[in-house]
Each structure stands twice: as C-alpha cells, then as structure tokens.
Amino acid sequence: MNWKKLGLTAGLSLSLALAACGSTEDDSSGDSGDTKASVGEQLEYTLTGIESGAGIMVATDNALKEYENLEGWEVSSSSSAVMTEQLGNAIDNEEPIIVTGWTPHWKFAEYDLKYLEDPKEVYGGTEHINTIVRKGFKEDMPDAAKILDNFKWSPEDMQSVMLELQEGTEPVKAAQNWIENNQDKVDEWTKGVEDGSGTVKLAYVPWQSEISSTHVISEVLKQKGFETDLTQAGIGPMFQAIAEGDSDAMTSAWLPRTHGDHYESFEEEFVDLGANLEGAKIGLVVPDYMDIESIEDLEPKE
C-alpha cells in the first residue's frame, strides 16, 4: 500500500514538473512561437516614423509595399524629436521598437543600435551628403566657395556635434567646440584662403545633422572674415531657395535617394560641389537587444 502511495506521489510530481516546464514538443513550438510575431503584436504592427514627406518616410512607405511580410503594418508620422524620445523610452524599459533611422545621428553615439538588413534594397545603399551652391556664387565669392568646396568630414565628426546639441548645447557653441578640437581639419578647408568679406546666405533643413554641418561651416566662414545668414527651410523650399538665388549655399543634400526627387527637380538650376560627407545611410533601426536582424524577420499582421 505504501509503495502504491509512493508511486502515485512520484507520478504526480513528474506530471507537475512536466506541466511547469512544458513538453519537448511544446517547447519547440514555443521557441518558434514566435519572437517575430510577438514583436509585431507588441508594436501593434506600427513603425515609428518622423515628419511626413521626408525622404525616409517615402522609402518606408515603399518598403511596406515591397515586402510582403509587412502586409498590415503601418508607419506613424510625428517628428524627429518625438521619434528619438520614443526610442529612448523603449530602450530605458528594454522594450521593442522599430524606428526610421539615419546615419549620421546622435542616437548612434548614445545607444547600441543596428540597422535591419534590407534585402530588397528599398532604402538603397550608403548615401552621401553634398554641398550645393547657387549659380554664379563661385564667381561672386570665390574664397567662400573654395571653403565650401573643401568642406569634408566624417559621420563621427557630425555625430559628436549632434550629441552636444542633444545634450543642450547651443548650435553655435557646439560648432565652436568641434572646431576648437579639430582645427587641423578646418585648416585644410581654409588653406590658401585670405580673409574675405561679404555675407554668405546658408539654407538648411532643421534636422540635427544639418544644423550641425551648417553651423560648423558658418563658424569656419566667420573665422575667415565672412558674415553668414542662416535660414531654416523645408526640404523642397531649401532646394528652391538655392535654385532661385535666394540663398547662396547649403550643405544638406542627401543623395542619391533621400533628397533625390528634389535634386532632380532643380538639378539644372544650381552647382553641385560634391560630397561633404560619405557613409550616410537610411533604413529601419532597432535596439541591439532585439532578436531580429532583417526586415524579412518581421511577420504580417494576421
């Protein structure tokens, strides 16, 4: 009788243990059960975007059409500031989030992030940011044009300025700090340029990346005796201002994809001085702790 009780007790204990841990078959289906699906469910099948109409938002709309596994997903439009705030909140709580992202950006200096692979190349490869001037500017202000033509820096350079902006430093001061720490690079940009005069009108889109580049080049021009007049504008109006001669220059043309449509619209009406930064990129970005590597790892909404 005691042996029967012992056997019953042992059998019950084993059953409870299996119930708690799950059977081998259940575990297998649980593992496949599925991190990818849970990401979509937790995010309510929504990507976190920025301003509607931005090049990366247009590309993301295309991604939703090109990737069959993104059926039922949508992208929310807000602003760059809201996107980074939501990203920071998610990271603080180790929650999933997928944002429209680009490099250079201070968030890559602040957080451990990764781009999702884009097998269909909807977002294109790496991009470059070009300096563009109005027609006649090189003849009217050759020394200023030479500085703008020589202006070359790296994503890491730009991100260091952007991080200062994010931490509350005023744009002019952040630019001055960078110049003070990188005077050797600045000397290359201004080599052979005598002290100038006159005002250089700079247009820029109000992204931290372009606030950074525009204020840095503005302070460098001031070092050489020029005055500067800075004007924020939307992407289309910025290109139009250069094309129509209302502004002299910009350092903000993301090519070939992000600003490609605007570039082509005004291509015959300005002078392209070439890339001031190589290695720019756009795409979908997630915190490094998320167990997905590719856009194709996501699953459609059921």
TrEMBL record:
Location in or out of the cell: Cell membrane
Q: Which residues form the signal peptide?
A: 1-19
Q: Which PROSITE patterns match?
A: PROKAR_LIPOPROTEIN (PS51257)
The record's listing under InterPro entries reads: ABC_Gly_betaine_transp_sub-bd (IPR007210)
Q: Which residues form the ABC-type glycine betaine transport system substrate-binding domain?
A: 38-181, 199-299
The UniProt keywords, alphabetically, are: Cell membrane, Membrane, Signal, Transport
What is the recorded name of this protein? Glycine/betaine ABC transporter substrate-binding protein
